[in-house]
Amino acid sequence: MNKSIFTAPKSLDELKTALSKKTHNTYIVAGGTDLAVGMNKNKIYDFSLIDITKIKELKKIEYKDDLIEIGSCVRMVDLEDNEIINKYVPSLSKAASCIGSTQIRNLATIGGNIANAAQCADTVAVLFAFDAEVEIINSIGEIRKELVYDVIQGIGQTTLKDDEVIIKVIVKGQEANEYSSFSKIGARKTVTISKINACIKLALNDNKITDSRVYIGSIGVKAVRSLLIENALNNKVFNEELKEKILELGSKQVLDSIPKRKSKDYKKIAVKGILDDIFCDIEKRRNLDE
Ligand SMILES: Cc1cc2nc3c(=O)[nH]c(=O)nc-3n(C[C@H](O)[C@H](O)[C@H](O)COP(=O)(O)OP(=O)(O)OC[C@H]3O[C@@H](n4cnc5c(N)ncnc54)[C@H](O)[C@@H]3O)c2cc1C
Question: How far apart are CA 72 and CA 86, in angstroms?
Answer without folding.
Answer: 18
